[in-house]
Amino acid sequence: MIPFNKPCSIGTEEEAIRQAINQSKLSGNGPFGEKCSNWLEDRLDTEKAILTPSCTAALEMTALLAEIGESDEVIMPSYTFVSTANAFALRGASIRFVDISPETMNINAEQIAKAVTSRTKAIVVVHYAGVSCDMERIMEIAQEHHLWVIEDAAQSLMSNYKGRPLGTIGHMGTFSFHETKNYTCGEGGALLVNDSSLIERAEILQEKGTDRSQFLKGMVDKYTWRDLGSSYLLSELNAAYLSVQLDHADDINEQRLRIWSRYQQGLQQLFDDGHLEGPQIPDDCQHNAHMFYVKAKNSEERSMLAAHLKEQGVMAVPHYVPLHSSHAGKRFGTFVGEDRWTTAESEKLLRMPLYYGLTEKDVDHGIKAVHAYFQK
Ligand SMILES: *Cc1c(COP(=O)(O)O)cnc(C)c1O
Q: Which InterPro entries match (predicted)?
């Protein structure tokens, strides 16, 4: 059976973890953590990258930093992971779900503009499959209404929009290093603080609301409780694993892109014949091959195709159930405008296996299995 995902491993992570053990510093923001933060700051050209235990935790930090409260509204797509919404629902905000564009499955900028009210405080965008949202238009809407823009870039490390790295365009951006993502350490994440006025508070928040990071830099002579906070640090053991992945980021990216293109070429005939729809990458987006998906005609055909692939030893899987249709989604949010695409498109989408180490032979087997379904 070809699994849908295998956590990425380069082979030298064990050595790095052993080194972390020997350096006698296992808690957060040690040498390996610093190496990863520096890598993110240099490579993405942003001032501050903070490693967190998950993207979920980084999103919670953004809600605290934006001072989201009970009277606020936050606009986001319904087609996303629960953490995007939870972070803001936890602060008591009302979630305003808006529709996506079918070409990219990303939030539709014009629907955002229509959903803004006097209570709107933030826009949270999700770059689905590592393909950028229409950031130019979104930043323009945000500027006009003085809104925070938070990029849930969980899937998007190494992707660009008009040459700019995803996660660095909004006021804040978040990454995930969960085992299902391109670069991993099991569980992990990062917060990019692109607005320098937020950096000091972000450091305090990460350290349980204390100024411990200033104390460690010798800027204050004892550390005290300064603000709200929690424990938002990534252990050195995880950072050690992650540092190896970041060192090999280009290899990993190139291999994933090769696999992605092989699927694209192998399935092109089925797209041309109208049996399936393939992913579309807008001209101004450079993606990171986080995901290769196809869209069947409807939910029934998707189930039959997935069942056929499973019989052929290929694990292809659907993705998000729109949040506005869930129990909690109804409690904490509302869909604003028409659900023209979110539900319908989510029911058609099927993700093919894609991971570092997936062989060409296995990719070709997957492609052949999809063709076989349509020849039946
Ligand atoms: C994976 C993912 C998350 C959650 O990441 P964790 O690191 O598991 O917390 C959040 N948002 C999106 C869009 C994701 O794909």
A: DegT/StrS_aminotransferase, PyrdxlP-dep_Trfase, PyrdxlP-dep_Trfase_major, PyrdxlP-dep_Trfase_small, WecE-like
